[in-house]
From TrEMBL:
SMART domains cross-referenced by the UniProt entry: DnaJ
UniProt keywords, alphabetically: Chaperone
SUPFAM superfamilies named in the record: Chaperone J-domain (SSF46565)
Keyword Manganese: no
Stated name of the protein: J domain-containing protein
J domain boundaries: 3-54
Leader sequence residues: none
Organism from which the protein derives: Pseudocitrobacter corydidari
Length: 482
């Protein structure tokens, strides 16, 4: 029969990081659904290996011809037994009592026990890092020392875990059997490790079942919110957690983002759109780009190719935040998103023909038979821009008039504003129209408001468009006269 080390494929070790990495490396080969027996065997080997290092032989200080050695060895045995006490190992008060025993020793005795105690802590799992901080502060492990007989890298890992603290209040597990306590902590510890270090394994771990509970702990609930949101899983129980977090930290954008994630992937429809658009406009980021695009694909698929174009315009800036000169629809990310949308099977013929024309320049132009589609006007302008052509001024004026409507959809408003800004950018460099760049950027910035906007704002946009059209006609007139 194979030992736990043979199953894990490693030599016997007391390094729990090596054990955990070996377990995670083998995990994809033993899926709980496809190979339940292999998975169970791997899991048991992992737990057995951790159990072996959780109860190591307590290192004793070599016998010396002084009176300190018996006291130091006695302290090490007490610490070992304390860490195996299911009722006391997670209680801060019990740790304070242990530290009081250290305080009763002499300075030389404490110095001799300082790093052996650290070595025991390194080889113990699970352990309360929040409680261990009490001992670390007392023995000044952070300050280091030249006399320590312990691996420096392992000490640094331990100190890092102490600074991070516990995943939750482990005392909430005290009513459970020790085995269940250990398995629960190991499970959540593996989740936290894979979330940052092995994201490709994180979803597999999240899908596992076992004897663990969800602790009623505020910080841990927020960690759950982060975990599920990263997988784009919507859990109704997480909604109030996100709301409470927002109320507690109104200036923190993180809980606001997670709240939107839960609502978007929970399938919320039109009631979410105004809030989502407002958030995207006021706090633009790639995270909210993805959320807005995901919502659009679910509820407004025919707007999706146009929204991609609007988001592309916002992203095309240099290191100083100045707009770059480019042909709309030419970025690699835009083409990739369009290609994905083309094969999703939910687009209208108009949307499909627009994307096909952009990805394959030999494809036919959009047909007039789709002129009754509500997005027809926007697609006409977008098609001209993507061909590096000036959109017809009549089309642009019609877009401006659509923005004046109080009932305009917030998503449609975002798309139209993006098209107008792109039209102004295309007209200006190629037709040598004299337009104040600061004025254009100001209009673009003001146009990021979700509401319909004041009539004065759109008057400025009209003036810029009219200047562009006039410059265009003037340049052609001069060209013919010469």
């Amino acid at each position: 029969m194979k030992t736990c080390w043979q199953i894990l494929g490693i030599e016997a070790t007391t390094d729990n990081n090596v054990i955990r990495q070996a377990y995670l490396a083998l995990l994809p080969s033993f899926h709980p659904e496809n190979d339940p027996q292999g998975f169970r065997q791997l899991r048991e080997a992992y737990e057995s290996a951790l159990k072996e290092i959780a109860s190591p032989v307590t290192p004793a200080v070599e016998e010396e011809e002084d009176a300190d050695t018996p006291w130091v060895n006695y302290l090490l045995w007490i610490f070992h037994d304390f860490l195996n006490d299911a009722e006391r190992r997670f209680q801060p008060q019990a740790w304070q009592e242990f530290i009081q025993q250290i305080n009763n020793l002499s300075f030389s005795q404490i110095e001799k026990a300082r790093w052996p105690l650290c070595n025991i802590a390194i080889n113990t799992f699970p352990i309360s890092y929040s409680c261990l901080k009490l001992l670390s502060d007392r023995l000044a492990w952070e300050q280091g020392g030249d006399d320590r007989d312990v691996n420096n890298e392992k000490v640094q890992d331990l100190l890092f875990n102490i600074r991070c603290g516990d995943l939750f209040d482990y005392t909430q597990l005290q009513h459970l059997p020790v085995v269940v306590q250990n398995q629960t902590i190991m499970f959540y510890d593996a989740l936290e490790s894979t979330f940052f270090g092995y994201p490709h394994l994180f979803s597999q771990l999240m899908a596992q079942h076992g004897p663990w509970i969800v602790p009623d702990d505020l910080c841990f609930q927020r960690r759950h919110l982060r975990w599920f949101s990263s997988l784009r899983w919507s859990i109704p129980e997480l909604f109030p957690i996100a709301l409470a977090w927002q109320e507690a930290e109104p200036d923190n954008e993180t809980p606001r983002y997670y709240h939107f994630v839960q609502r978007v992937f929970g399938g919320e429809g039109d009631s979410l759109l105004p809030e989502l658009c407002a958030q995207w406009q006021s706090n633009p980021s790639t995270h909210f780009d993805d959320l807005l695009l995901c919502w659009c694909r679910q509820h407004r698929p025919d707007y999706f190719p146009l929204l991609v174009l609007a988001i592309e315009a916002r992203e095309q800036v240099d290191i100083n935040g100045e707009p770059l000169l480019y042909i709309p629809g030419s970025s690699a990310r835009t083409c990739m998103l369009w290609s994905e949308a083309l094969h999703c099977g939910v687009l209208s013929p108009l949307s499909e023909s627009f994307i096909a024309r952009r990805l394959n320049y030999g494809a036919p132009a959009m047909s007039e038979e789709h002129s009754q589609h509500p997005c027809w006007l926007m697609y006409l302008v977008a098609d001209r821009l993507a061909c590096a052509e000036d959109p017809d001024e009549v089309l642009l004026q019609q877009l401006v008039h659509k923005l004046d409507r109080s009932t305009i959809c917030p998503l449609e408003a975002i798309i139209i504003r993006g098209l107008l800004v792109q039209a102004a950018a295309v007209t200006t460099p190629y037709e040598s129209v004299t337009i104040d760049e600061e004025e254009v950027s100001t209009v673009a910035q003001q146009s990021t408001e979700v509401s319909g906007g004041s009539s004065g704002l759109w008057l400025v946009i009209r003036i810029i468009l009219y200047i562009g059209v006039a410059g265009h006609l003037l340049s052609k007139l001069l060209h013919h006269s010469t």
